[in-house]
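pinging the channel bc i need a second pair of eyes. not urgent but kinda urgent?? the chain im working w is below, pasted from the shared doc
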Amino acid sequence: MQKSSIFFVYLIIMLLIIDGILCEPPSETTLFRDITLYASVFKDREVILECEKDMKDFYYKWLKSRGAYDFVKEIVSYGKEDGFVIRYKFNKLLKGNVKVRKIGYHNFEKIINLL
């Protein structure tokens, strides 16, 4: 009689979810792109932008026209995905791992280190 072994392989994809408001001014679009690049390339995270349903096209066009959509996998409505969340500071309804008012040079290193 042979013993059979069962192996389970779990593929865990860590998501980085960024609040859509944080890609708009006064946030720095280049730093937004740098955060998505770092998360995708060095941390193997899929980057998802979260926003209101009716704003998806706006954010797609905004990021695409500024060269900041390269590492964003998808744009989804709020609350559809779970993962590490960078949230707009004044959004009281939704939780976030990091809450910031804007993405700027003053907090860029902090955000990168928390990823």
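so DSSP finds three helices and five strands in the chain. and Helices lie at 29-41, 56-65, 108-114. — does that match what u expected or am i reading it wrong
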